[in-house]
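Please review this one:
***
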Amino acid sequence: MIKSIFKTLVLASCVALAGGAIAATPTGATSVSSEQQGMHQWQVLGGKLILINGAYQDVLVYKRSLTFYFESKPGEEWLHAPIIDGDKRNAFTWFSISQGEQTVADAAVVARANSVEVVIAETKPRVVAPISVTWYRFTEAGDDETDGPAYFFKKTSVTTYPANAKLTVEQVLKKEVAAKMKK
């Protein structure tokens, strides 16, 4: 009887794991916020993009982190996939920023059948200020990007919400993700 229950539990666990693996490959659009801790993965560019969402915490600081890796073939090395700003600054791990109760910068990931994008919303701390929104798309380095990583997130657009809109970073991020998921 115990053997039978054990086999049933093992089978149920395998089915649950397989279902999770299938869910990680988007057939439509999916999103992951910086608050969804753990490993997330998507099939893109002929390989697997892996996101590790974590957190850093000490007595004074709490911030969430996003680190991306790309595995071109099963069993190959996991290559860092940095977020690259226009001036070629690499962010191997991106961190959210908060001051007190205010979120100053946060990010989310939107995955669709053929692309994965990161959106970062940020503002200035402790003042009513515009909120800048920057989108980055996961891409493979081309002929004009030979001196850098093989795979990275390339800036695709920047939008600014005016300060008089009186929106929070969280509200803007939610609005941007919802709009992208509808496309």
About this structure: The radius of gyration is 19 Å. The longest strand covers residues 47-57. The first helix runs from residue 2 to 23. DSSP finds two helices and 13 strands in the chain.
